[in-house]
Amino acid sequence: MTELNGDHFNYFAYGSNLLKERIHVQIAGAEFISAGRLPHYELIFAGFGERWQGAAASVREKKGDEVWGCVWRVPNSFAAELDLQEGWYDRRTVSVETAAGPVACRTYVMREADGNENKPSPHYKLVIVNGAIEHALPPAYVDRLKKVEDNGYRGAVQVPISFLKSLL
């Protein structure tokens, strides 16, 4: 199974890169393909990232659970930039279920996430929720995201997303 397809690769985003405005900050060539489901994985928040002032999203295997996200078509010329953005994550190829059938995708899994769970900043959570809404992920999944407890941080973050100014 390979996520490569000629001059591009398929990328499964489940965190802040769900939001079109966010992914285009660094990966301007990304093109939305489809919503997708990663079966037998769960969404977790772990570590602490200076960029977002809170925990970051990751996935880990968990039978019976699922993670929804976006399949993006990314030009190979942006591969190094995406790897840099996901610096403390390991690249993995996964099979994502879409309306058109299974799609092999690159995704990223946080190194040493187990046992290091934490709360995301309200900014990060808001970007994820808005990305899920923007790409019509299932309402029950969006509700699950809305219920994630954040860390209450109210200062600035290092990612230029227009609607985040309301949190300052």
**Kindly state the mean pLDDT as a whole number?**
90
- CATH level 1 class label: Alpha Beta
Proportion of helical residues: 10-25%
Give me the CATH architecture, please: Roll
- Beta-strand fraction estimate: 35-45%
Principal-axes geometry comes out as globular
Count of DSSP strands:
6
SSE string: EEHEEHEEHH
Which class best fits the helix and strand makeup? alpha+beta
Helical element count? Answer: 4
Summarize the main sheet. Answer: 4 strands, antiparallel
Distance between the termini: 44 Å
What's the CATH H-level superfamily name? Gamma-glutamyl cyclotransferase-like
Strand order of the largest sheet: 1-2-4-3
Low-confidence stretches: none
In the CATH hierarchy, the third-tier topology is known as Hypothetical upf0131 protein ytfp
Using only CA atoms, what is the Rg?
A: 15 Å
EC number: 4.3.2.9
Enzyme class: lyase
Keywords: Lyase
InterPro entries: G-Glutamylcylcotransferase (IPR017939), GGCT-like (IPR013024), GGCT-like_sf (IPR036568)
